[in-house]
Amino acid sequence: MAEEKTKKKKKIRSYPILVLCGFYAAIFAVMLIYISAYSYNNRQVLMDNSFNTRQQILLKQNSRGRILSRDGDVLAYSEVGEDGKEKRVYPYGKEFAHVVGYSTNGKAGIEALANYYLINTSIDLSEKVALDTQGSKYPGDYCVTTLDVDLQEVAYNALSARKGAVVVTNPKTGEVLAMVSKPDYDPGTIQQEWDSLIADTSPDAKLLNRATQGLYPPGSTFKIVTSLAYIKEHQQDYNNYRFSCVGRFNYEGESISCYHGENHGSLDFIKSFAESCNSSYANIGLSIPRNVFADTLDQLLFNQELPIDVLYSKSSAHIDDNTSVGDVMQLSIGQGATSMTPMHLNMITCAIANEGELMKPYFVSGIKSEDGKNVKNYSPENYKRLMSALQADTLKGMMRQVVETGTASKLKGLSYTAAGKTGSAEFNTSTSDSHAWFTGFAPADDPEICVTIIVEDAGSGGSFAVPIAKRIFDAFFGVE
Question: How deeply is 477 buried, as exposed, middle or buried, from its count of CB atoms within 10 A (0-12, 13-18, 19+)?
Fold first, then answer.
């Protein structure tokens, strides 16, 4: 009897220990499952981490894969140099510098975006055996991009020696067709020039991708945003708006001038937009309730993350109950503290062209092995609705009038129809220096291409950015 009691006591004493062991075993199992799932789902991010030595191991075994345009043109490949070392070759030199990027001294652009696949191989085992017998490396998987060589070259040449950026996309799919940023660099010689490139912190820094990282005052292109806020508040009666422009607008001691002091005379809402009247838009901005304007900024992705997979800067625009009258007037015309990237402006323009829906921008359409197998395919992906279809259609009509009767008339009377908005964004408070902007799409009724351009310190958007857009549209539609 005493022996049974002793066993029972031991059993009672050991029970909590068994429960505790079971508890910790369960925690360990959950952690193991979580770590395994996390490692699998984030294998590309983990592989691309600079501290992961597996990249070097793979590159000893595999040659870095090629990067191709949408039509099969080779944009980057690897070859063995005279010194026996593998080096990266970029056949188009500076033309694709920022969008294709580099893979030496770190990685950028598509070289960074597709790195996981470029250093891995998916060829058959029989191919590997054959290469092993030859003592050769395995070929890495290659990347097929969305980039169009013809459009890239036209955009690159049209920007010429000017500083600035060009973004060309398909608004219906989100495909990035071309992306140019200047000043640029030669990715083929980046290793030799690295020290001087990273030492340059001036406004002329060549490594900065101005298309996605360059923050600029959007100037009159921001009137698209102000217009949307006004339309939301006056959906039924925005056509009743009237304003008389005398070249300057004064309100509570604050003043806004039209570009070069131009007197626009009697204006309605559509004409105010088409002729890009600063005075009228300062008046419009003040009439919009602060909360409506703030909601519109949030709706259009200001001050927040963007759905793109390359390095970018957040655009900035703010308004609340504490914003001064002068700052509201400046915000309404895209000046003051407002800043924006060309890529973000292009995304808003794409949403207008695509009935209010924003497609997620993407650069890579597929990954293939060198023996022809599909490794991974990328498809158009709907990100979110930025505005209603009716609001998008209204803005589309307003942008059409900019071409037909306003500041983008150089796109009028062509074999295709276009719509857009120009901008002349002042960036120097002590002078009238301005950046030239254009953002728009074509054909106007059923858009297939969207173009956003900034030319730094060039002056009028209608004079300098619109002609670049025309060259890109002409190339896309095959106009000689």
Answer: middle
- Cα separation, 437 vs 454, in Å, equals 5
Bridge partner residues of 420 (DSSP): 440
Measured on CA atoms in the order 90, 91, 95, 96, is the torsion positive or negative?
negative
Q: What pTM does this model have?
A: 0.88
What pLDDT, in 10s, does the model give residues 195-254?
999 888 887 899 999 999 999 999 999 999 999 999 999 988 999 999 999 989 999 889
Q: Angle 363-380-440 (CA atoms, 0-180°, nearest 5)?
A: 70
Instruction: Tell the burial category of 261 from Cβ atoms under 10 Å away from its Cβ (0-12, 13-18, 19+).
Output: exposed
DSSP 203: T
Q: What is the mean pLDDT of the chain?
A: 89
Identity of residue 305: E
pLDDT digits (tens, 9 = 90+) for 120-171: 999 988 888 888 888 888 899 999 999 999 999 999 999 999 999 999 999 9
**In angstroms, rounded to a whole number, what is the distance separating the alpha carbons of residues 89 and 388?**
46
Do 363 and 110 form a contact (C-beta atoms < 8 A)?
Answer: yes
Dihedral angle over CA of 227, 232, 235, 240, nearest 10:
-40
Buried b / exposed e across 397-411, counting CB within 10 Å, b at 16+?
Answer: ebbbbbbbebbbebb
**Structure tokens, 63:** 């040659």
Percent composition of the chain: helix, strand, coil (DSSP 3-state, to 5): 45, 20, 35
Measure the CA–CA gap between 278 and 332, rounded to whole angstroms. Answer: 8
- The answer to whether 270 and 403 are in contact (CB under 8 A) is no
